[in-house]
Structure prediction request, 474 residues.
Amino acid sequence: MLRGAYAFVDLETTGCNPVRDRITEVAIVSVRDGQITERWEHLVDPGVPIPESIQALTGIDNQMVQGQPRIERLAEEIHQRLDGVTFVAHNARFDHGFLRNALKRAGLAFRGPVLCTVKLSRRLHPEEPRHNLDALIARHSLACGARHRAMGDAAATCEFVLKMADALGEDAISGHIAALTRLSSLPTRIPAEVLDAIPDTPGVYLFFDERDAPLYVGKSINLRTRVLSHFSSDHSNPREMQIAQQTARIEWHETAGELGALLRESQLVKDLVPVYNRRLRRHAALCSIRWSGEPGSVPEIVSGPEVVESGLQHLHGLFRTASAARKALLEMADEHKLCPRLLGLEKGRGACFRSQVGKCSGACAGRETPIKHAARLAEALTRLKLVSWPWEGPVAIREASPGYGEDVHVVDRWCYLGTFRSQDELLQRDLFERRAAFDMDTYKLLVAHLMRNRRARVMPLAEAGNVLRAGARH
Prediction:
């Protein structure tokens, strides 16, 4: 027996993005205490053409939805069937996200636990390699009147859960469902309406205590899901519990995509220094190992302005302290049998002690030429080589989302100068001067995005103003 009230939901849509794409069909199978009480389905006019690939998959074409109601007209009916019951779907994040956004546009919000039958299947049958709906239909002999149509898939999902309830018994299935639908336990000082307003979009979020002091800054490609995870009723560690207990206010900022969220998070942590953020905090002076590559030249540890002003040329590795850089050189000497004297790690003349015990190849004693030693040092330092700035001046990185608009992130010599959404903001060059600062975390994420992402949209700064001006006209 499946105790409680459930809504088994399936949607057909024009695509996979809950912000940009639209719903073409909705089906809801309502169940109370193990009995199906209603089957409700409706085609929906998405207001946009249905891609041919989607038409081929679902069988729903543009002619079928012509004249059907828009989702806003069906919002009240859908809301009545979903609010306060357990929302069940196969890959629930997809269907739940679409309906939340659709109802939000209509000024409505629904609350209740969410159960994903993909996760339920994996929990009940971990030995099985596949848990998509086709696999479940075949494995459990489920009836499906029309695959990839909303009612067919919703009914099959419902039958799967009811079969599992009959096979396992009421207590067992209730335990599994409870584990998978951990309800968020909101701090008493935060109204439920606040969570309803958090979007399913990329961005950063901030937690503040009752004195409005910053507790934590985080980022996510789905703000709502990530924020809710902090308030799980069974916190996995004391730190999460402390954050949840102390949070009195939540703030969030949407971004066009993941890069903007990463940059904003790193900047906010360094500016606000939240209590529970340690990894991204600002450090006074970074250090690096500078080596020209010439035989006989000695690597040196440089810090502060020498790191930034060099443009990262001839620099290897970024370290928070000089001792950390020195430790890296020592480990390199051990691993590659390099001479510590030629690395500037110890003083003296003649053969070093490590050479006498076979831990140095003997460049200090004439058993190895300076050229060979330099070649091995170059090989050892290769993995630490910093990426020099490849452009002549500052550049703009474009990042866009159909439901949000376009952001332009301005960067110069790996320093993050700001994110802009209008030409007027971009023309405030004095703002660049105040915010420009070389930061290790920002360097790493920008290198990962720009040097390893062929689809990154980079342009000279002079072109960025035209892009923002054109975007404003539209």
Summary: The mean pLDDT is 86. The first strand starts at residue 5 and ends at 13.
